[in-house]
Amino acid sequence: MSRDRYVDFLRAWAIVLVVIGHWLITALVRGPGGEITALELLAVIPWTQWLTLGFQVMPLFFLAGGHAAGGSWVRARAAGGTAAGWVARRALRLLLPAGV
């Protein structure tokens, strides 16, 4: 597996862990009157707080994102791009989806 493929795998795995982790910490409970509440298991069952150690994915996101950005910068510089142009393109690619 190439290094870029491995970094893509790590990014995807981190996303999967975030989804699973959030799914696991929420319990939907129907009350006596039929109302549904969402209990946070980390507060209700304190020993589950230790399980969060296996879901520490932010360092993984930062490392994979830094690797991807570094490769993008190297390719842009090799094509004759400037730092300002590279930052502008990256910002546009990140901000447009977030704005929508």
UniProtKB/TrEMBL annotation:
Organism listed in the record = Streptomyces capitiformicae
Q: Where does the record place the Acyltransferase domain?
A: 5-98
An annotated Gene Ontology molecular function: acyltransferase activity, transferring groups other than amino-acyl groups
Keyword Cell inner membrane found = no
Q: Answer yes or no on keyword Membrane.
A: yes
Among InterPro entries, the record links this protein to:
Acyl_transf_3_dom
Q: Which Pfam families match?
A: Acyl_transf_3
In Swiss-Prot or TrEMBL terms, this protein is called Acyltransferase 3 domain-containing protein
Q: Which UniProt keywords apply?
A: Membrane, Transmembrane, Transmembrane helix
